[in-house]
Amino acid sequence: MLIDIKNLTKDYRMDSVEVAALRGIDLQIAHNEFVAIMGPSGSGKSTLMNILGCLDTPTSGIYRFNQIDVTGLNDDDLSDIRNKHIGFIFQSFNLLPRMTALENVELPLMYAGIDKLTRMNLSRQALEKVGLADRMRHRPTELSGGQRQRVAIARALVNSPGIILADEPTGALDTANSIEIMDMFRQLHAEGNTILVITHERDIAACCKRIILIRDGLITSDTPNLN
Amino acid sequence: MQVKENVNKAILGLIDHKFRSFLTILGIIFGTASVIAMISIGEGTKKQAIAKYQDLGVSNIIVRDKDMTDPELEEVRMKFSKGLSLEDAKLIGEVVPGVVSVAPQSEIKIEAKYGDRSAKATAIGVTPAIMSVLNYRTEKGEFITSDQYDRQLKVCVLGANVSREMFGYDEALGQSVKLDDQWFEVVGVMQPKALFTETVGELASRDLNNDIYIPLSTFNKRIPKANPLTSEVKQLTVKLENSEQLISSAAVIRSLVSRRHFNNDDFSIIVPYELMKQEEKETRIYNLLLASIAAISLIVGGIGIMNIMLASVLERTREIGIRRAIGGKKRHIMSQFVTEAIVLSITGGIIGVVLGISLSLGIAWATEVQTTVTLYSILLAFGFSVLVGITFGYLPAKQASNLSPIESIRHE
Description:
The complex is a heterodimer.
Chain A: E1 3-14, E2 17-29, E3 34-38, H1 45-52, E4 60-65, E5 68-69, H2 75-85, E6 86-89, H3 101-111, H4 116-129, H5 145-157, E7 163-167, H6 175-190, E8 194-199, H7 202-206, E9 210-215, E10 218-224
Parallel strand pairs in A: 3-8, 3-9, 6-7, 7-8
Antiparallel strand pairs in A: 1-2, 1-4, 4-5, 9-10
Helix pairs in contact in A: 3-4, 3-5, 4-5, 5-6
Chain B: H1 3-16, H2 18-56, E1 60-65, H3 70-78, H4 86-95, E2 99-114, E3 117-126, H5 130-133, E4 138-141, H6 146-150, E5 155-158, H7 160-167, E6 176-179, E7 182-190, E8 211-215, H8 216-222, E9 235-240, H9 246-260, E10 267-270, H10 272-315, H11 317-325, H12 330-366, H13 375-401, H14 405-410
Parallel strand pairs in B: 3-8, 5-7
Antiparallel strand pairs in B: 1-9, 1-10, 2-3, 2-6, 2-9, 4-7, 5-8, 6-7
Helix pairs in contact in B: 1-12, 2-10, 2-12, 2-13, 10-13, 12-13
């Protein structure tokens, strides 16, 4: 199992009131799955995604990533896991505005301590893969929304991560671009990547092979998507 | 991550924010500049203060006949003291170890006349030895030679002021001037000397540029004494090999002269080097005061850096969140911001050094204040400004690295 979660909970303290965001999640995701997590806002799906992405730690429960118990790791180790095994894709792209597309894609490799030349080559390949070979020297502001998200996908792919976590990847895009991005995900999945998409759009979830519904911090349904 | 790449990125980032970067380093620039300018004023003042001791010679000991009233003079003569004499000079040269040469001199206030112009001056009878003992240099002509001394010629060398007062821009060399009622031929004019504005021990303050030098032999033969009991010479300047044995040599000279004067307390001993050290110590406190005022301004500059860097951390919260999400560790974020602080403060330091040096030169040019830019002040100001920049850059960097990645990535 790539991801193995048992009885995971997460409480937030807001003005001395305890809020339970996750109330006991059990979840397994294997290699090369293509999963959608759906749920209304406030259901806890973002919290789950943050914990899966090692950006946050659970209040209780067990989270094994690639057989490693993540709950006991310190900040540096969590950074390492994010860097080497997880590729993030965000709704608002989250590219650094003062850097070119190429530099943005290079960033994870820089934190991984890879030398400049290798970094350039790997980043170039990643950008070519998402079809932006001719936009490498552009800054994000000089790119369209779809192109920006493709830069973000290249950045997520460049470290050959174990899983790609996409949080509302098409939320800021029009239909044509959304279809394009989802096609790309499908292709990446076909190439053997594990992909987890968080969305509240039915069309997007319909592209995935497995759909998990979440409500009030609990998984309410977990079904394969056959079509 | 290599340091060089970090620095390059920091420089590019700061260039992207020219105005913000400029505001940030403004405090450092002025802090550094004011430290250098203040120390240069302090050093200039000190240099001025110790120049007079250097004129007296740092390896010299001065033995001087005390100024006495006529009854006092009669009393010491009754007690067998003959006062300071050429014989004393000879003996000091022979007996005291480490003595290079002894220059005796006599003094009298006279009026010098040339044509219808006149000047109040001090006639000083000297031996040619004084040239080397006191580093005397002539602007024009020659100082008194051994030959002129031996033949007791009526020649004189004018101090810079006396020359200017009597001759203006006319040629003084070869002219005859009247000292009281004797005619002397001008053979040289001295270089200007530092003003002797304070009394140093028994050496009353006076302007050395008003001196007129004549051979001591001529002086004793031609110039009448104010009182027949006046000592043969007024002062002996003893030059030693180096300044290490000044104290012990001074003691030897004191006991020697004292014995020859039958224990009469009619002379005093001045060690310019010791007086110089003392003065240096006093000006050091003054310098320290100036430097600390400047240091306070540097610290204020550092607080400026901290302010703007804190604002920059806030502004870049989202960037920090993104960097953390894709695997940047706390220390990566930390080093990014600290590198920026270092680049900023070094840049500010360099600009400040240039400004400080210009300021010092400007002050010297525009005002009476003498300034001296020293290497140590540059190093001190630069080092301190970089230290302040890093110290005050550290706190915002620490804060940046401790931001939670989830919250900062949502930050708009």
